[in-house]
Amino acid sequence: MTQNKLKTVLKLYRGVIGILVTLLFLFMANAPVYSEETKPNQKLFTVAAFGPDGRLWRVNPAQDSVAVDYSLDYGKTFSKPLRINTKPQAINSWNENPPSLSVDKQGRVYVLYFADDKQDYTTFFSKSEDGGHFSEPVKVSSKADASVHYQTEMLIDSQGKAHFLWHDDRDATEYKKTGGGDLSIYYVATEFSNTHSFPPDHRIAKNICSCCRSAMAMDVDGRPVVLARFVYPGNIRDHGMFKLAADGTAGEPWRVTYDDWKIEGCPTHGPALSISDDGRYHITWFSQGKAQSGLFYAVSSDQGKTFSKPLKLGDGSKLPGRADVMALGKQLAVVWKEFDGVKTRVQAIHSEDNGSHWSAPTTVADTSSASAHPALINDGKRLFLSWNSADKGFQLIQID
């Protein structure tokens, strides 16, 4: 896929989402529509994370700015927002391309967001020692001004090192010659002290499905593991996995789902990955494949080489999708969306024994308006749903 074609696809996707948001506001929430939006309300993509002191941090994107605030009472009240970008930018998030927020063990705050610059969806990064002052945002990709890149994932390890990976089209000419997927995954890592620039980034995977967000989690040995939707021969869009070495290089990825979803297009439905303290890999994914179709969860006890029989999630008549999974000690939770034609509901299942037994699915939140994907976060003791909708705003809901 050429750069111009990719830009066109992404802009069409963004435009469709904007139209849907407008319609949902008008017909579902009975909210007046004053103007047509070319992209969704950026506030839908507010993200949250807990710090080591129990403080709940948020990144609040607006149309031309990104701000950070925090709560000392589990989201009941929040501090005055602190703006990160001093100059206005065209902030550009969407459901498969949300901002990221991490807080390390020392209470240092890391923020990643997307804005239109010389290229659309450019990734910007900022950080703070304590959330009181943030560094000037810098671009993450070394080719940020020349190549389309987006869906950046950020992961902070136990040493405070920040790991980034993203989808990048700089190898489009190579793929045009050889066939295969549309994009590559590029990677870079940096120490907290590196404020103004990043080390050279490099490719860690190719033949990636262009619009499905990849997932990254830290293994028990401190090395990142990546789960992504690959394009296999015949336009089969299933999932593969790979692990990074200590020097940031990656070996050949191996396939982990065999749904045989053949589609000449973008599913725009990325997977989720969480690794528990005992080294088990927990994954969720969506497929409309010939072999199986639906939303699924599976677990691996051998570092992703083999997975359990997939557990099908949700009511198939209510369009289940957008699942997230998180492990915390022996606790494990999965959340996902369902839509019955009137309301979108977030469903959840919870396990106290690392997935050996599951609770029955329960509805933990709902909306009649536009909403972001559900996300799971934790405070070190409990698991929470972090979710945003146009009618109810930000919600933090304990999963139990």
UniProtKB/TrEMBL annotation:
Mind telling me what this protein is named?
Uncharacterized protein
